[in-house]
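Can't attach files on this board, so I'm pasting raw text. These are the components:
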Amino acid sequence: MDARQKAMFDYCIAFGDDSLTLGHRLSEWCSNGPFLEEDLALTNVALDFIGRARMFYAHAAEVEGEGRDEDDYAYLRDCREYRNFLLHELPNGDFAFTMARQLMVDVFDVGFFGQLAGSKDPDLAAIGAKALKESRYHLRRSEDWIRRLGDGTDESHRRVQDAFEQLWGYAAELFEMPAAEQHLADAGIAVDRAALKPGWTATMQNVLQEATLEVPAGGWSIGGGRDGMHTEHLGYLLAEMQFLQRAYPGLTW
Amino acid sequence: MKQQNLPLFEVFVRSKRGLDHRHVGSLHAEDPAQALEYARDVYLRRSEGVSIWVVRSSDITASQESDVEMFCDPMDDKPYRHATHFNLPKEVDNM
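---
Top answer:
Structure tokens for the assembled complex are below.
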């Protein structure tokens, strides 16, 4: 791979990892949802994210051209090789925490995939168009829930406010552009994520205000996911997700 | 929010343009807007339809078992009420 291909490969892997880790987190709600309808809805969203991971990984495999496939990337890489944002790997917490994180991700995704749909790389553009449609629906759900929880009971208000306080500093990473990614963006292939920040901030402020919630003061931020520096939680996630392929290599059914 | 307090909604789906909405089942939700979203997730993930209606189950007035005699009697004693009572002229092919 030349430098350009390497940048392209890393790009696909990173966004595939975002999709896979959050998809896995959401799938953990399966059979644990607050009630049956929400259980089904959450797992439908989980499936959308897993589907995205497959599309990004498949494209990465094409760029790499070494015969690896989606399963190799998902099951046979360890923590330090994962490049997802920390926000996506955090444990679900309570339902308010899950939906607060989901709102932050969905607002970002609608902006991001809307831009990616116009990428000069036809595969990325196709992924962008498909994911945008899904994310619009995800956002409708997460906005709806944040309003219900924020403007609900004292307990739901407190829980969702706490969740945003704990999550806010993880957003910074979403808008940091590494040099290689910036080159791809300059070439019209990648999305300039730094430019998405004002729109993201404005939408978040609107939704939180409608939900009678305070926008967290912030003042702290944490990152490193794109460099493979993760929270302790990712290891446990991968241990569960990868167990079968690690214990029985090549097993199929 | 307590799940036992969530109201029940009936879900109707139009499978194709030109066809009628058909009852497909029911679900629990806080309000009609949320019921519509859940209807999408519960009943409409494999291109089952092009349009959804939801209606509070409590807004449906239904006939009772005791009404059957009055509302649903086949009227077999009045054969002239059935189309099959009448002999059609040969010229009418499809009726």
